[in-house]
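Issue: copy button drops trailing tokens. Both records pasted manually instead:
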Amino acid sequence: MPTQFERVWIQGSGRFLPGPAIDNEAMDAYIAPLNRISGRIKRRILSENGIRSRHYAVDTEGRTVHSCAGMAAAAIRACLHDGGLRLDDVGLLACGTSGGDALMPGFASMVQGELGAPPMQTFSSHGICASGVGAWESAAAALELGSHRNALVAAAEMPSRLFKRSRYAARDYDADFDAHFLRWMLSDGAGALLLTSTPGESTGVRLRLRFIHQRSFSGDYPVCMQLGLTPDRDRSHLDFASWREAEESGALFLRQDIRLLPHLFDIGVHEYAELAHAGWIDVPRIDHFLCHYSSERFAPVVDELMHKAGLAIPRERWYSNLTVRGNTGAASIFIMLDEFLRTHAPKPGERILCFVPESGRFTVSFALIEVEAADAPVRAAPVPAGVAAPQPDEEAIAPPHDPADAAPGLQHLLGELASIWHDYRSRAWRTPVIRKLRDRRFDRDDYLQWMQHWIPQVREGSRWMREGAASVRAPYEALAALIETHAGDEQGDFLILFEDYRRSGGTVEDIDLLRRNPGGEALNAYLHALAATPNPLGLLGAIYIIEGTGQRIIPALLPLMKASLDLPADAFRFLEYHGANDEHHLLRWLRAVEIVLQHDRDGTGARSIVDTARRTAELYLMQFDHVVKP
């Protein structure tokens, strides 16, 4: 039974094809012949598949130019631009591939990281050609259920890395026909769709997803296309003592048993006929048929089978870009759909049927899209009953306590602060400086630049705290002593940081010559102005963010810095000190908050703490943004 949709539309589409189009003559520079029979096999396969050009994400030396996740991210950016939304508007990212850049984690997680996307639900679909449709269906189902308003679907493939001549060296460049075959069939690329349950206003048409149907016949047939098994399929590459032995056995060759392929299209057309007889597909009303076949040779096979079933779609309604874009596996249907939408003008009432057969162990997939007028009525998406507002996860809650464990009077305030922290922490991890650390691109100059900006800010910290303590009035007198103690702890910290800077090779000898970046300037101006007001209770919100950064974020960054920088251990004293001691500072902060709440009859003190925490987080992020160039 297909999955039927009533509230899912395609808001945008995008594709990414790396590098220039490579014609059949130029292929040898990328997919080099293995032996003297390679040329003959190549000519035979290309004459049958009809592909005249394709794209590769490697250069002629076999070096990777674009990663698989990077191609997916590029397609997603194009898709978002087409759909007029931002990443922040998306709640789910679903991705499919037959092989990403890493064995683990899931491909969607890698794409999310490549995008620097905000927290969202992810789903990774692994398989071969139908894995992209699996991601598409999961995203559409989430929208239909009301779990999200917008979702992204992407698929990317990069088989060129498997086809480099060096991959066959362990077997002296010898490969059987099944291993040769796909070298001349597959190529690289990515495609994406933006789905929504709340389509925006449009002057054109809307594309409504009607159903997706997938069915696997893996229990009926042996493996047809595979990577990771020996030629006789009796051993996995993981069963060998080393990767070298697995390579020598041929277990790391991508293979296709072409003798089984005719069965795939027979199965696919039988499934198509069942959907038609059950009323899911009204064949005369199919205006556009987007069929993913791996070779032009198979188009007349599908056509003949449809005619025999009495359910033929006229060939003038078929669309494929295989000959000029190549076979990009799971990405093919998305690349095809994007190019179709940009080169055709579908009209309201027309229907687009997508067909994706997968030869791995035989899976067939169908998707039906209906073209609507831009002003057609839209049924509102449901709000699931019993779904609570999302809560910050335990690891994201800044110290000193989980709100659930706090005293009743503190729970609401800590809950609001935890929500602010959750957003701030996530955005901080996506700033240029921390992304460089995560990607192992952070160098000594970046570290010195960071400290040059940070030292004068830390120096100002004890000053605005003391100004704030001096501004405290009744009935909060006890608060002044706590803030003053905290300022005393912070007073000499900037000197430790300056020593770290000098030990790391910093050339500025006079600390007074160091200047904050725009974010640091804005933060300190804001906090000095607040500290000068009577009873500046909001300063506790600023301390929450600043000290929380020291306890939660800095300890996570320190190992990355040490791994990236060839510096002596005493060049990181400030970071190590704060990671170990800010927890004690925040316990003192908790006592200060309790003093405020004892006298906060109308809630203005708590509101001031929350508002200041939110503004401090924004300004601290601005400082992070200006530390290094992306």
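Record 2 (pasted manually too):
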Amino acid sequence: MVDIMDARKVRLAYLKFFEDRGHKVIPRALLVPQNDPTTLFTGSGMQPLIPYLLGEEHPQGRRLTNSQTCLRSQDIDEIGDNRHTTFFEMLGNWSLGDYFKEEQIQWFFEFLTKEIKLDPSRIYVTCFIGDAKNKIPKDEISAKIWTNLFKEIGIDHASAEIGSEEDGYRLGTQGARILFYSDKNWWSRSGKPEDMPLNEPGGPDTEVFYLFPQVEHDPKYGKKCHFNCDCGRYIELGNSVFMEYLKTSDGFVKLPKRNVDYGGGLERIAAAAINSPDVFKISLLFPIIQKLESLSNKTYEVETNSMRIIADHLRGAVFLAVDGVVPSNKEQGYVMRRLIRRAIRFSFNLGIEDKFIAEISQLILSLYEPDFPEIKAVKQKVVETLNKEENIFSQTLRKGLRELSKLQDKGLSGADLFKLQDTFGFPYELSLEEAFSRNIKLKKDYKKEYLDLMEQQRKRSQTAAKGVFKGGLGGQTLIHKKYHTATHLMYQALREVLGDHVIQHGSNITEERLRFDFSHPDKMTPEQIAEVERIVNEQIDKDLIVTWEEHDTKEAMDKLHALGAFGDRYGKRVKVYRMQAKGESKPFSFEICGGPHVEHTAILKEQGKRFKILKEESSSSGIRRIKAALV
């Protein structure tokens, strides 16, 4: 049985439960995806496993499990309720062409009710209602499995067919334990079936919800409450996707190899284990709340919103720092900076005047270090990184105050408030507070203008996020394979030209170019850049044969000396790609990688293209960055 308040034991119990059922525990991927240009962050447990869900063989076999750290920056503005966090752990298990619905549903129900000891009478589920237009049947199989599981423990089955969330708000649960939804219970990277492109995989899913009867339905979320209601009375614990269909020109057909992709929120399951609808009461978050109470001499009950935002944002920022991100004005660094600065902004609500981030960061690190051994080596650097940003923001505050002073006479418009926040990092709420204390007038409709500009920005971000995730199963096209292959060739060429101290620190591939970060103390000279280009093109001309083989990780790295990316954590077995010319005794490149690649390097020079380094620049201290393309 899981101890009260101990989310860590929930995590360990889950991994052991599935390990006992033949699953290999694989390490978490970094929060910043490697070789994936489609998204800024790892936002789900399945994301790092995309190639294997599409058919590649995983070195660890067909049954996998892990707890994946995730970050969803699009949820920043939702933080403050009882269940949303930007950073979270996704408990996952996968069947790659092995077991399917019967085993998955039964195991998850058993884990919740036997291992975590949740009350089965408070568990509710949803299934796919079917799609007659696309000849996809209603998921009666999953519903029947759930019905039988409930009957075995004396709970009568009651189901209702609700086609959408809107129907749910209108009709309520109708006394059902199983509800049938349409789009809500269909998964593909592109959304509902009609939006899917050809040769796209997808399938129905079943979601599990836990009822918190102590939470009253809030009518502002709809006339009636139902499982997917946003009032917090029902909280989703997990989602099992049954990927079994492929969209073709002749309609949907069954995949030859069906997959199971389960993801469940550790924080939410841990909250259910202590009968709390508030995820911030679990053992990985409440100590942060208690520290904030101590620093501010205020209570969580009074300052709930501010304390939740600070706890969530700093936890996310700490793990970004653990995975090598530093605050900046671009990409992942921008999100990290925003998290830290929002945390500082809400510390003003608590009356915390002294710097506090180092103390909170150390606490967060101590909560996670027992199960994330990589933290030990970077603890000091993480604290220094966040502490430095806190110091920088102090300067930002002064700049914001100066800008406010310039507007003293003319008054503040909504556009001024938006600019102060977006350009100078000076929070909207703080601008209003300063305007009030300085008697700066606020122009008519300032709030509406500000909110309109924020909404425009939010829509731009959402559009980007949707476009980003839409490509989540991408990166498998020929041009992607060419750039993956070129990255291997360039990595080895850099080591030959600059030295063996060159180690990969990250890469990013799009259809237009490759980006590669590596350790090197100095700016590359024009001569060095030209030599790297020459070597890569020479290997392309040699038409190296590209093959891969599986090895034990320790053997691959220590005995065979395969190159690997700095910071990547590998399972017990890995794929090692060999690029070698016919007749030569040694490979030019021998590197651990998940793929995909071309079969031979001459493909890279099709249409007369040559490898060209477009830009070489600093990425961070001691790390250089190259952008290159086939032009």
